[in-house]
Inverse folding.
DNA sequence: ACCAGAATCGCACGACCGTACGAGGGTGTC
DNA sequence: GACACCCTCGTACGGTCGTGCGATTCTGGT
C-alpha cells in the first residue's frame, strides 16, 4: 500500500475512535492532526472537506461492524445458531467498546434530524442492517426452528431495540445488570418466534 | 415573572428546539442569539457558561418529558391502563417531534462517553425514568393484571428498547411502519407480563 | 419624576474552526 | 544524477467560538 493510503487509513482509524467519544459532528481536523502528530493541512489534504472525512469514518465504522458482527454471524449455521451469533457478536462489540461497531450505531441518533449526505448514508446502512437481521431470522424458518408466519422485519426491529437499550444501560448508566437484561430480552424475543 | 426570567425561559425553549436538531453539543451561543434576535453577550449573561446553558436546556427537556409523558401516565388507572398510557404518551411525544421529550432521550447517546456534569445529570434522570417505568409496571401487580413474579426492571428496560427502536425507524429511516411495529412490540411485551 | 437595579448592548480577547495554496522533502524510475 | 510525482508542511484567510467588561437602556417602586 502506498504511503499516502497508509496514512489515510491511520487517520480514519483515529477519527473513528475520537468520533466514538464526541460524535461524528464533534470531529475536528485540528484535534485529529494533534492526535496523529501531523499538520492540519497535511491531514486535510487526504480528504478534501470535513464531510468527506466524516463519511470516511462512517464507512470505516460500517466495515468494522460488518467484519465483527455481520459476517461471522452469516457464516454460522442457519437458524437459531445464526441468530444467536448475530446477537452475541453485536453484544460483544458494544460491551468491549470496539469504537467502530459502536460508532456505527451511535451516529444514527446524532444525525436523525440533520439532512445531508451523512444522514442519507447512515439511513442506507441501517436499512441494510435491518434487512440482514430479517434475513437471518428467516434463515430459521427454512430449517424449521422459527415459526413459518414470523414477521422477520418486526424481529429485526425488536432485536435492534434490545441492543439500543443495552447500549444505554451499559454506557450511560454503567449498569452491571445490563448484559443480563439484554440476554433475557433476547431470549424472550427468540422464544416468541420459535416453532 | 420578571422580565429577565421571561427572556431566559424563551432562550431555553429555543435552545431545546435547536439542540433537538444538532445535539446538545452542537448548541452555539452565537446561533442562539441570532435566533432570538439579541446580542451574544446579552444572551450569555443569563447563563454564565455554555455548560450552564446546556444543563438548562436538558432540565427543560426533562420537565417537558415529565409533563407530557410521565405525569399523565401516573394519573391513569393503575395496572394496564397506566402502562398503556405511559407507552402511548411516549410514542406520541416522539412521533410528533415534541423537541423537549425527544431531546431528553436523544441526548443520552450523545453524552454516554463524555464524562462531565451533563452526563451525570443525564444518567440520574434516566435512572429516575427507569425507576418510574418499573413502578408503573408493578402497579399492575397490585391490581392483579401483571404476574406477581414479574421483573419490573426488565420490563422498564425492554420498554425503553421499544421506544429507542421506534425513534430510529421513525426519524432516521422515516419508516411508515415504525409506529405499527412499536405497537406490536409493546403488545408482545405486555402479553409477556400479564397474569 | 426620580432613582436603583436589572437587562441588554457593543466591543474586544485569544483560540480554534474549515479551507486554500505554494514550497519543500522523499521516493522510485529512467 | 535528473526527473516526476506524491506527501507533508508552513502560512494565511475569513469566520465563529466562548467569555469578560464597561457603557447604555429599560423597568418598577417610591
Amino acid at each position: 500500500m502506498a504511503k499516502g493510503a497508509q496514512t489515510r487509513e491511520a487517520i480514519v482509524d483515529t477519527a473513528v475512535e475520537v468520533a466514538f467519544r464526541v460524535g461524528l459532528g464533534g470531529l475536528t481536523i485540528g484535534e485529529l492532526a494533534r492526535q496523529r502528530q501531523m499538520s492540519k493541512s497535511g491531514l486535510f489534504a487526504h480528504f478534501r472537506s470535513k464531510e468527506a472525512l466524516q463519511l470516511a469514518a462512517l464507512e470505516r465504522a460500517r466495515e468494522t461492524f460488518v467484519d465483527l458482527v455481520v459476517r461471522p454471524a452469516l457464516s454460522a449455521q442457519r437458524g437459531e445458531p445464526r441468530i444467536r451469533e448475530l446477537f452475541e457478536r453485536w453484544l460483544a462489540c458494544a460491551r468491549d467498546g470496539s469504537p467502530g461497531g459502536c460508532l456505527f450505531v451511535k451516529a444514527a441518533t446524532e444525525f436523525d434530524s440533520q439532512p445531508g449526505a451523512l444522514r442519507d448514508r447512515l439511513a442506507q446502512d441501517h436499512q441494510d442492517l435491518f434487512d440482514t437481521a430479517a434475513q437471518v431470522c428467516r434463515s430459521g424458518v427454512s430449517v424449521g426452528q422459527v415459526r413459518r408466519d414470523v414477521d422477520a422485519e418486526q424481529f429485526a426491529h425488536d432485536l435492534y431495540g434490545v441492543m439500543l437499550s443495552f447500549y444505554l444501560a451499559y454506557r450511560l448508566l454503567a449498569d452491571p445488570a445490563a448484559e443480563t437484561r439484554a440476554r433475557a430480552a433476547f431470549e424472550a424475543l427468540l422464544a416468541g418466534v420459535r416453532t
About this structure: The mean pLDDT of chain A is 96. The interface with chain B takes residues 20-23, 25-26, 106, 108-114, 119, 122-123, 126-127, 130, 151, 153-154, 157-158, 160-169, 171-174, 177, 181, 184-185, 188, 192 of chain A (CB under 8 Å). Residues 2-4, 7, 38-39, 41-43, 45-46 of chain A lie near DNA strand D (CB under 10 Å from a C1').
